[in-house]
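Hey, can you fold this one?
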Amino acid sequence: MNEEFILALNQLESEKGIKKDIVFEALEAALISSYKKNFGMSNQNIVVDINKENGNIKIFKEMTVVDEVEDEDTEISLEDAEEISSKYKVGSIVRIEIDPMKFGRIAAQTAKQVVIQKIKDAEKDIIYDDFIDREGELITGQVQRSSKGYVFIDLGKSEGILPPNEQIKGEDYSHGNRYKMIILEVKKTPKGPQIILSRSHPNLIKRLFELEVPEIHDGIVEVFNISREAGSRTKIAVFSKSEDVDPLGACVGFKGARVKAILDSIGEEKIDIIIWDRDIDHFIANALSPSNVEKVFIDDSNKQALVVVPDYQLSLAIGKEGQNVRLAAKLTNWKIDIKSVSQFEEYLEAENMTEDELYAKLGYEDDEDEDVADEEIEFHAEASAEDIDEEDEMDLEEAEDNLDTTDTDSEE
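Sure. Predicted structure:
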């Protein structure tokens, strides 16, 4: 039986990662608890000796040698001790072996429950320790079941939860479907670790780009920021640390292969890839793509921008239900007010000012700054995933400025 016990422990360690020492500790605690259950006595002087090589178990009751016994559970007279061995003196500790076969059925059941509970607790701790350092990581799981809007995902040795607010609206979470998600949070609860997953978080897009774009994975191209309305549209701003690498081309891939692989993981959602620029007026203009921008007026003190677009581009710049400008504002962290050319002229007339006076009001103090603000914004490279055609190679613009590490670090 002892040999089978050791083999079982080895199997438990290899299959579930539970160390044998944990089971030995559980068994020791179980036997002590069983002794107390069986004899109704204190367990403070019970010692369990387990041979970890062959599985032999011995249980001892430790008794203190005294002249006059006051507690029969913990003390033994010198006369009785000398019958065991003449070496014992007052104050010595005598070990008396207990036969575990005499524990009884209730005690044995108690020992079994203690061991099983200890193993379950160890399994929970292993799962928690395995996932706690993986928050934000990309993971693939299979839909197991759904209940009250929550989707339970099979992650192999554990189960994750996809809450309703972390799902993509309209996505099919039928049993057996597989999805890529990020590990949003890992909680320790009385029932065990709770692994919260997300399909809607912006970091899912970032992790997918890291997976599909080697230049991002290697740190040559970096993601500046992401704004996302899951299931509908995402804007991702990127830049390159190397003059030899075009960040847009790296993200899109040949004939859009890389970005299409990402789209396959998120369904009908559209992705706009934007080039980040250290000049905020250029960055805001890029962020409002696919619309064209004629002028950007910057109010640094309030982090607000007034953007002027052609009349026929106004609805495109604003987007359906304001989505395009809303995502651009989130991407740049600036408030953006969009006006058509005609609206802008009416605005100047209503305010009784010229463009030069507007520049002065916003803090453009010299001609050089005014010239920069006044010129028509020239876009950096940008592409929307919906515009990519597999049959035609994309004609991508080169980024105007490539950034060195120092500049990007200071901006971020």
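The domain at 201-276 is CATH 3.30.300.20 (GMP Synthetase; Chain A, domain 3). Let me know if you want another pass with a different chain boundary.
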